[in-house]
């Protein structure tokens, strides 16, 4: 089957070129890869729609999944204790450690796209 014809108004026939540093180029390529799109499409979406395309979440391996499941079970147990009024000694340190671990996992899963403030 042939590709459908694009109307002259929708056809992208003009080219715009701009210069970037090597660091900016690498960042653009990384962002485009994490969104599953081409760099030109990424820039076009950001400029004309005002936001980046949604990022694809990377597939996590089985070990990471098992570890996240264990953390979830522990948090569920701690929540039950807290709801019943029983606060184990040192719970504040444990919760702080879990929050730090959660932030670390999220950074790894999202490939630390913290440089992009305008999502």
Automatic annotation (TrEMBL):
InterPro entries: NikA-like. It comes from the Bacteria. This is Plasmid mobilization relaxosome protein MobC. It comes from Mucilaginibacter pankratovii. The gene is mobC.
């Amino acid at each position: 089957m042939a590709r459908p014809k694009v109307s002259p108004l929708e056809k992208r026939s003009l080219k715009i070129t701009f210069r970037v540093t090597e660091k900016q180029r690498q960042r653009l390529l990384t962002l485009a890869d994490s969104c599953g799109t081409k760099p030109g499409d990424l820039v076009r979406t950001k400029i004309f729609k005002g936001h980046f395309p949604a990022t694809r979440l990377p597939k996590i391996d089985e070990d990471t999944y098992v570890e996240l499941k264990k953390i979830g079970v522990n948090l569920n147990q701690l929540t039950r204790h807290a709801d019943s009024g029983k606060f184990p000694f040192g719970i504040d340190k444990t919760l702080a450690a879990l929050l730090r671990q959660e932030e670390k996992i999220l950074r790894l899963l999202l490939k630390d796209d913290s440089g992009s403030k305008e999502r």
